[in-house]
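Let's practice the habit of predicting before peeking. Look at the sequence and jot down your guess about where helices and strands might fall. Then scroll down.
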Amino acid sequence: MNNANSSRILIFILAAITALGPMSMQVFLPALPAIQDAFNVSHMQAQLVLSASLVSIAISALAYGPASDRYGRRPVMLIGLTIFLIGSVICVISTSIWVLIFGRIVQAIGGASGMVLSRAIIRDLYDRETAARMLAYMVTVLVFAPMVAPVIGGVINDLAGWRAIFCFTCLVGLAAITLAYPKVPETMVKTTHVQSQSGMFIHFITLIKIREFLAYAGQLSFGLGMFMGLIGGAPFVVIRVLGKSPTELGFLLLILSAGFMLGTFITARIGGGVGVDRMIKFGSILSVISGIIMFILVLAGEWTVWAIFVPSTVMAFANGLIMPNAQAAAVSINPQIAGSASGLMSFMQMMTGAVFAQTVGVIQDGTPLPMVFVVTIAALLGFASILFLPKTKISEN
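Done guessing? Here is the structure:
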């Protein structure tokens, strides 16, 4: 009983730490138009506050995974949380859009530690199928923070301005350090063989030669690309085109997160019986169908909140079915290098997310169509990733 309670507490703490990255990405989204106006910059420049941080997460994830395989999960995570706090302070005191972008980059580098290392810690503690369930429970818990983050950000922006949002992230970062220091243990099994730094990065080459890893990582990458294209374009579409307030945008993004949370909860409840690969395949098909419906509606002139956010919420639900299963499968391909697999997977996710988020900003034409088009393409590419799985995997019984 005590062990069960300890496991639940650890999962909750890891979820909270993992949520730092997604939370910090979503909490300021309702303030993007205000940030654009405050610094008198273009939409494309303001979009860099989001997309540059995604690139930073991607690159730093490559270091966190191998570093944790070499030095341990705990010390690397604590260093990352400290960097997150420093980045949040820089955002608060920023005097130009470029200083703010730099602060977001530092904040993102720190936030990546929890996103990479929590998955590796869970894989250290559980086998493949159990890890999938634990990740689903963790994702269900961690998604609560980014789910309410846009609402919090919208309200804070309306009441106190966009800088106050980053004061909030400072407080959250401090709370994460306070939780992690006494409660997160070292879970990596020590070995007598210590790899060189170059040897750790050779693991990346090993992983990208494995078609199953590419399939699972592709699912995750294009799934995040779909989501980042949506939340990257939503502030402009909802506030500028549809005339809604930042707080209303926050509630719409809350609905999206609720759909994702429902998907992860269902995965936690039935995923073990249905099977990892079958859940991924079903979620991919559902995502494509929803994306095509949304694209057709917008193309037909239905520029309404519900024409966009009902199909996209279904897509978020489908992503909730995919993500925990694909994560567990990817880090289970070679458990001895789970940290490297998690890091490479995060790199691919965030780079893809950055490309899709910035693409929406570059091709913005004053309509919802560019955002919807990018999101639908991401869903189709995610489905195409299934082709990398061996036929025996695709037809899993």
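How did you do? The chain has a mean pLDDT of 81.
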